[in-house]
Sequence to fold (343 residues):
Amino acid sequence: MKPTLILGLESSCDETAAAIVADGRRVLSSVVASQANLHETYGGVVPEIAARAHIENLLPVLRAAFDRAGVSRQQIDAVAVAYCPGLIVALVVGLTAAKTLAWAWGRPFIGINHIHGHLQSVMLEEAGQDCFPAVALVVSGGHTSLYHARGPLELELMGRTRDDAAGEAFDKVAMILKLPYPGGPSIESLARRGDPAAIRFPRTYLEKDSLDFSFSGIKTAVLYHCRGQNMLGEDRVERMSEREKADIAAGFQAAVVEVLVRKTLAAAARVSARTVLLGGGVAANSALRDQLQDRCRERGLDLRVAAKRYCTDNAAMVAGLAYHRFQAGLFDDLSLEPAAISL
Ligand code: KG4
Ligand code: ZN
Fold:
């Protein structure tokens, strides 16, 4: 039987991506143009710069996705795009392109929630067979959310961050330690040389039984550690030894990972889930992957983690999730607007 081929586009933040996925799983191509070097000097994503770069990157990325997949546009069954959440000026570039292609090719148009897409990245290729019902942790630069997932389209939010996302905390702490952007990979590699028990940073669990997260406190704790209480001291980071910086990175990472792992296991226990899914940019972190794997094994839970290349933003996850909407006949109108928040 002819496979269903979906073209996915992604431009919600600082990656311009296009992918062609067969039957929601088999990735024929996944092309990502990162703009990290453009935003590095600012220590974060500058929306106008991101939007301009998306416009420049989109057509080359799209062409490369078709070349690598070796398919023609006539073979595409639907066009999908992440339309929320994200930076409006960035989202609108991918959204406009996807609408235009769907209209010009006479194909269904499907809008995808980027966070739900991250969860779907676990199911790309063979990794995610028969994984429902599950508890899913999506942990990225913009989001930290726990879901009860009964199916790819049946996601119930169990908890989310009330302030910073976990990846945002990694990025901000990297900035405090004057490490290169994006902060997650920098902190992870520095932490390998440090002692996670040398400095105990606070773990924020919020109210008893809450599955929400808060990571702004730990970021402030690192800041005070480096700059004195209420930032009244001098910035010691320049004078710190590599070892001291590594201990800070390791202590910070240990605290964030401990909270993420505990809350995920608490969520699994609450809904008696036997499977745990992990996706999003921070899911590329080995300490998180390893500790969640150990705890899941102890409790007899089956952990499925997105392949590292699909943890950070990509369009294969968008096309993968769109397949399920396509199967269910859930198409969108070309009047669909971008949204900054998760809808
Ligand atoms: O999913 P993603 O590409 O974009 C969002 O949707 O936000 O995630 C990017 C985030 C950044 O905050 C980055 O620092 C973090 O994921 N990240 C990591 C690692 N790799 C990326 N955080 C911790 N350890 C990593 N290895
Ligand atoms: Zn993302």
Observations:
- The radius of gyration is 20 Å.
- The pocket of zinc ion (ligand 2) is lined by residues 114, 118, 140, 281, 313 (CB under 6 Å).
- Residues 260 and 288 are 8 Å apart (CA to CA).
